[in-house]
Amino acid sequence: MMRSVLIINSFLAIVLCACDKESFTFQVGKDFVEPSTKVTVIDTLSVNLATYRMDSIVTCGLGKVIAGVFHDEWVGDIVARSYFQIGLPEIKEVGLDEECDSVFLVLSYNKYYIGDTIQEQGLEVFRLSEGLEDDNGGNIYNTTSFSHYPEPVGSLRFTPRPLKQDTLGIPLDKELGTELLEYLKNSSSSLTEGDFLKVFQGFVVSPLASESHSVLGFSASDSFLYLRVHSHEPGPFDVPAEHIFPMVNSSLQYNQISFDLAHVPELDTINEKRGIGKAYLENKAYIQGGLGLYTKVTFPTLQKITGQPELDNILLIKAWLYLDPSDYDPDRTGFVDTIQIYESEMNGDKGSSLLNESSAPLVSDFIVDQIYRDNTYYVFDVTSYMNQEIMDYYIEPDFGFYLDFSPNKAATMLDRIVLDGNQKDKNNQLRLELTFFQYDL
From the CB of residue 34, how many other CB atoms can be counted at a distance below 10 Å? Predict the structure, then answer.
């Protein structure tokens, strides 16, 4: 059993906030002894928060389309576009006299949205002028862009119903449907998907910036994202037909995300190596999907309770990390009820996720004060990791943890959490709470 010993009596005596329980008697073998024992809780350590930003995020191959504009009151305007390719229909045969009646891009809602869905939304579709390609590592990023023709091939103005409707159909130019049918008519039976993609290289769904007030989520797979061409073969009685051109190359479908950081220009100066402390952000720290914003939490005064000589009679038995969300609003969309916690590597970089007892990523509990909201907070049980760090009686000056969403959430949503770093506010829940067991045999 690992014993983690932290502090000496002289330190405990000067701790500003501690809760002691009465001494008690316990049995050792067949004898009873009356040791001097107590449980001490320390929750007055200073906690620093700093915001960092990833240079880019891998957003390809995640099976999700996001498109629209989110006017974030805390950060600024965020614009999401989605790129994808369509392939050949399952049945490639087309009647020689068959004519296109209409063509739609069909998107299937995945229930995700952020922003104002009461106002009318605008989306338009552009045809790509170059094919989609990943980098050497098989990745496409939120910062990546591919060229498209200047004129859209379709658009739609609508009032979003992401929770009530299953699909959204964007009407496209009839000429595109005609071109697709004519291509199939004039192709041989040996036509391949590669041949098709040389001509129809892909599409991008983009918001009409002046008419977009929310970002909507859709599923990205061959069953849920496709072009549907309605046609007929003329005759005494027209024979209707339908052709489905499904999304293909799911690993190349990706979301491009751009933003202006107009409300917090300081965040434009940071990266993965250089963060910005809460003191420069009005005692705030940010976590936001799509933008690559995440937070590092450190404990500057934690070193004061290590490195002492009289450590063998004090055990750390519990460590809780509490975080206070400044922007909590139960009526706001895009509020995430879990945060993931990551280790800080030796060089200070964000490392891998901490794990719970089941070897799954460690996530926070979210406690909501339904009445006053003052006691709403995130909390992590970091006992085992604090024990590991201090078992040699020394803590690195910049020891801490990183806070972020899961990689999938960080790449497919724009949800945001603003953490309150003002520990002088008596209602602020931000703290590291350490519980020690002290005994003197």
Answer: 9
Tokens of 45: 């350590």
Whole-number Å distance between alpha carbons of 271 and 310: 42
178: amino acid identity, one letter = T
Task: Choose among 291, 319, 307, 300: nearest CA to 418.
Answer: 291
Residues 6+ apart with CB under 8 A from 3: 315
240: its two tokens: 């209707």
Q: What is the DSSP letter of 412?
A: H
Can you say how many angstroms the Cα of residue 278 is from the centroid of all Cα atoms in its chain? 21
Q: Are 97 and 236 in contact (CB under 8 A)?
A: no
Cα Rg for the chain, rounded, in angstroms?
Answer: 29
Cβ-Cβ contacts under 8 Å for 236 (sequence gap 6 or more): none
Beta bridge partners of 411: none
Residue 20 contacts residue 405 (beta carbons within 8 Å): no
Token pair 């003002």 is at which residue? 422
Does residue 45 contact residue 283 with C-beta atoms inside 8 Å? no
SS (H, E, C) 84-128: EEECCCCCCCCCCCCEEEEEEEEEEEEEEEEECCCCCEEEEEEEE
98-123: per-residue pLDDT in tens? 999 999 999 999 999 999 999 999 99
Strand partners of residue 64:
219
User: Rounded to whole angstroms, how far apart are CA atoms 45 and 110?
Assistant: 43
Cα separation, 422 vs 150, whole angstroms:
49
Query: What is the Cα–Cα distance from 263 to 30, expressed in whole angstroms?
Result: 69
The enclosing H or E element of 418 equals strand 416-420
Q: Answer for the pair 281, 266: CB distance below 8 angstroms, yes or no.
A: yes
Q: Which residues pair with 40 in a beta bridge?
A: 436
Quick one: pLDDT at residue 98?
93
For residues 42 and 15, give the distance between their C-alpha atoms in angstroms, rounded to a whole number: 7
pLDDT attached to residue 70: 95
pLDDT tens-digit series, residues 244-295: 999 999 999 999 999 999 999 999 999 999 999 999 999 999 999 999 999 9
CA–CA distance, 404 with 359 (Å, rounded to integer): 18
